[in-house]
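FAQ

Q: What does a record look like?
A: Structure on top, sequence underneath. For example:
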């Protein structure tokens, strides 16, 4: 979609305040929910049981319809719209009357990250000032477009990162020096705190601190971003009085300094050895790796090395000829290196986006999750990877390249429901 008709296209700023839709403080803990895409319908149904205010009734509204309902049925999207209007009508969700920022802090164990909730111009996404590094699937985009339209709001924030700036650190430290508006702990123990930034002086300070940013990078939320762009196009085309200043010209983000986000490993399991015996498979690996058996599970401590679990035994694989620091960004990624040296030529894995012989295990499940898959007998071999670095992600995005699927697992995850972006 071209941004030439967007009045904001010429504006340099990448983040704006907005009047958020949010829970009243005394109900925030009842409303906040895990993001829609980390729970199955069954898991969401269980988590929302007996919790009528849970945002899962909006983000996964099929839980309020008979079991077996197609989650992409028209009735599901209609139910989501009905549920958000109910929470607005009964006073659970309120809307700030003037543009505000919101500071969002997540705490998981000893890890803490603090960022800014704001609205980014869709024009900046279309012009690649909000940069992406993944392909999207049209069916998943369409699902988000229909969800946004049905609730007339963007309820799933996009997690973006930016290069650190001292002025941003100072502004956020001052804002968070007082008690937060919300302090919620979700199942799993992750804490979510939100501060409301409504005073003119603080808004001006935030504007100045973030105004110097030239680029944002999507870390988690490519489908939500693409859907926001499509919604803008649809609403612009349907509005004969379009000016570019309408709410639908922006989308909901939470921006974190790149050095604060936490990326876990994203590991792989392959169904079989492509007709090879274990001994023959290990022999093939000798061409590109130093292969060492280990008495302990192997979690790589550096890039270009891998853990491998095969036949009840762990191995450490160290790349004999790793790519140099001057290699193109994609070639330096361990996820690509494993595909180039093992998955494609030895194990015969095709396009990892569609090949049913490969699956992906988020690092949050630990190495035990890899062992369990292989020990079940349903999978032949597992690989543990060193986490992709955030600067590697940025380098790929800056090069205009696309990372292999399932390259990054960001943890903790943003909650749904604490701040939404209304489109009316």
């Amino acid at each position: 979609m071209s941004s030439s008709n967007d009045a904001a296209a010429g504006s340099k700023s990448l983040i704006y305040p907005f009047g958020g839709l949010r829970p009243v403080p005394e109900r925030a803990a009842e409303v906040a929910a895990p993001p829609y895409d980390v729970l199955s319908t069954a898991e969401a149904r269980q988590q929302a049981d007996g919790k009528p205010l849970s945002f899962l009734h909006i983000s996964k509204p099929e839980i309020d319809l008979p079991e077996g309902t197609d989650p992409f049925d028209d009735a599901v999207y209609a139910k989501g719209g009905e549920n958000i209007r109910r929470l607005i009508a009964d006073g659970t969700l309120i809307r700030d009357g003037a543009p505000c920022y919101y500071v969002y802090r997540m705490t998981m164990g000893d890890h803490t990250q603090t960022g800014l909730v704001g609205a980014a111009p869709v024009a900046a996404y279309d012009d690649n000032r909000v940069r992406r590094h993944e392909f999207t699937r049209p069916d998943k985009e369409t699902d988000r477009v229909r969800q946004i339209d049905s609730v007339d709001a963007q309820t799933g924030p996009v997690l973006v990162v930016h290069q650190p700036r001292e002025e941003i650190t100072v502004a956020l430290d001052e804002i968070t020096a007082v008690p937060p508006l919300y302090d919620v702990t979700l199942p799993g123990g992750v804490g979510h705190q939100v501060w409301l930034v409504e005073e003119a002086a603080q808004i001006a300070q935030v504007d100045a601190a973030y105004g110097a940013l030239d680029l944002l990078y999507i870390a988690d939320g490519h489908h939500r971003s693409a859907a926001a762009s499509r919604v803008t196009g649809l609403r612009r085309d349907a509005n004969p009085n379009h000016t570019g200043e309408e709410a639908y010209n922006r989308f909901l983000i939470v921006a974190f300094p790149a050095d604060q986000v936490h990326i876990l490993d994203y590991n792989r399991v392959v169904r079989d050895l492509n007709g090879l015996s274990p001994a023959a498979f290990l022999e093939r690996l000798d061409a590109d790796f130093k292969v060492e058996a280990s008495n302990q599970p192997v979690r790589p401590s550096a890039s270009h090395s891998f853990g491998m679990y095969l036949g009840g035994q762990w191995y450490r694989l160290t790349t004999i000829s790793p790519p140099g620091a001057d290699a193109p960004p994609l070639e330096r990624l361990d996820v690509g290196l494993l595909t180039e040296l093992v998955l494609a030529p030895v194990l015969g894995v095709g396009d990892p986006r569609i090949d049913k012989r490969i699956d992906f295990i988020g690092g949050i499940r630990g190495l035990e999750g890899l062992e369990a898959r292989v020990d079940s007998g349903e999978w032949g071999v597992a690989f543990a990877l060193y986490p992709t670095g955030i600067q590697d992600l940025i380098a790929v995005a800056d090069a205009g390249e696309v990372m292999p699927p399932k390259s990054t697992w960001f943890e903790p995850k943003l909650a749904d429901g604490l701040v939404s972006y209304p489109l009316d």
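Q: Is there anything notable about this one?
A: The domain at 266-386 is CATH 3.30.1760 (Conserved hypothetical protein from pyrococcus furiosus pfu- 392566-001, domain 2).
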